[in-house]
């Protein structure tokens, strides 16, 4: 009877996984990544760092280097890049940016690591960049949706994204999968796509068009689509307020710095409650879940990794595929979120690395098979 129960559990899990992914034409490697992350998240979490191999604390552009690797001997399992440079710039700059990003994504894939993509998308209808700037920025989600004045321009920008997605070919000819996380932290007002600058209906319309156009018109089949607000929700209903629907999302997540020590303020109970809302919804909907951004700038707390982050992640039975901390600026002496050799939290980070629950690049085996 026990064997039958195990068989049934595996069958149900595999069924759950197969219906979860929204691109039925996803590449074999993208399907494998989705399923393997689903399985890993039952008992582990993959550690990620934004821009980890592009630059770090006091350095930039060194081959095979990351601050995480300098401390632990392994790159992060998840490496974050950004599509910010693929629009709103001269064509020659976009070509150069795409080439550097392509090398980064392919190198990560060839090593067996995973790429996640943020999109600090410069406003396509006004100045102000990706932030909202009063008197400069235009509320542009209504303008780029189907029927909007800047919709054709948006389609051209998505074509650039698609061309990049279809260019990241490894040595064996396969395309590197990417976790694509557009319009993040949309529940705040700091970005032009934020809640105060666009209606729920327009946000959902743009999200659905973005997925549909990339997947169905431009033949991008190596994306896993991630939905991640900031931490301004306290219930599942609030979390889902701008959710475009299960048929438009592969992964649900949350960005949360505020509950984990920003400005010296800790509210780990609140942070855990929100993470559990994300994880519980993912389990119910057959989706992946992740802690898509967090961290403590400058990491002044020497035991932040084990006493704050790890304890929270392990406090409840949650299924989170990865946790990503923000970047280490190359020039700023204080803007960093992962330790480097000699940093006050480095020893604790090694304990975090050695915990069986956390997975780094060296721990990922055949993630694309």
Automatic annotation (TrEMBL):
Gene Ontology CC: one annotated term: extracellular region
Localization, UniProt: Secreted
Site (Plays an important role in maintaining the position of the catalytic nucleophile): 184
Highest taxon above the source species: Bacteria
Sites where the protein binds substrate: 120, 190, 257
Keywords: Carbohydrate metabolism, Glycosidase, Hydrolase, Secreted
GO function term, MF aspect, one: mannan endo-1,4-beta-mannosidase activity
Catalytic activity: Random hydrolysis of (1->4)-beta-D-mannosidic linkages in mannans, galactomannans and glucomannans
SUPFAM superfamilies, alphabetized: (Trans)glycosidases
Domain GH26 intervals: 28-362
Active-site positions on this chain: 185 (proton donor), 293 (nucleophile)
Transmembrane segments: none
EC code(s) of this entry: 3.2.1.78
GO aspect biological process, one term: substituted mannan metabolic process
Family: Belongs to the glycosyl hydrolase 26 family.
UniProt-recorded name of the protein: Mannan endo-1,4-beta-mannosidase
Protein species of origin: Dyadobacter pollutisoli
């Amino acid at each position: 009877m026990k064997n039958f129960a195990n068989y049934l559990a595996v069958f149900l899990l595999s069924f759950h996984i197969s219906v979860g992914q929204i691109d039925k034409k996803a590449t074999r490697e993208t399907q494998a990544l989705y399923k393997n992350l689903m399985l890993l998240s039952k008992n582990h979490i993959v550690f990620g760092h934004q821009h980890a191999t592009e630059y770090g604390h006091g350095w930039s552009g060194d081959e095979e280097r990351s601050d995480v690797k300098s401390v632990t001997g392994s790159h992060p399992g998840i490496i974050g890049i950004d599509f910010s440079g693929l629009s709103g710039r001269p064509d020659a700059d976009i070509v150069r940016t795409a080439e550097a990003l392509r090398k980064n994504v392919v190198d990560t894939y060839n090593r067996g690591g995973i790429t996640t993509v943020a999109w600090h998308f410069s406003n396509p209808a006004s100045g102000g960049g990706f932030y909202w700037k009063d008197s400069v920025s235009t509320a542009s989600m209504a303008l780029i949706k189907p029927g909007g004045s800047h919709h054709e321009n948006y389609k051209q920008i998505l074509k650039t994204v698609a061309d990049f997605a279809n260019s990241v070919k490894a040595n064996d000819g396969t395309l590197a999968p990417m976790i694509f996380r557009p319009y993040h932290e949309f529940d705040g007002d700091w970005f032009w796509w934020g809640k105060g600058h666009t209606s729920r209906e327009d946000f959902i319309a743009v999200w659905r068009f973005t997925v549909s156009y990339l997947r169905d018109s431009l033949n991008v089949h190596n994306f896993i689509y991630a939905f991640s607000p900031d931490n301004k929700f306290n219930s599942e209903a609030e979390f889902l307020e701008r959710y475009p629907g299960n048929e438009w999302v592969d992964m649900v997540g949350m960005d949360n710095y505020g509950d984990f020590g920003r400005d010296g303020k800790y509210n780990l109970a609140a942070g855990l409650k929100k993470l559990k809302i994300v994880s519980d919804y993912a389990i119910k909907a057959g989706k992946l879940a992740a802690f898509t951004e967090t961290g403590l700038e400058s990491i002044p707390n020497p035991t932040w990794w084990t006493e704050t982050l790890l304890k929270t992640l392990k406090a409840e039975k949650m299924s989170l595929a990865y946790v990503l901390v923000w970047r280490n600026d190359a020039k700023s002496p204080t803007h960093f979120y992962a330790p480097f050799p000699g940093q006050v939290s480095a020893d604790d980070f090694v304990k975090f690395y050695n915990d069986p629950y956390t997975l780094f690049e060296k721990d990922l085996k055949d993630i694309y098979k």
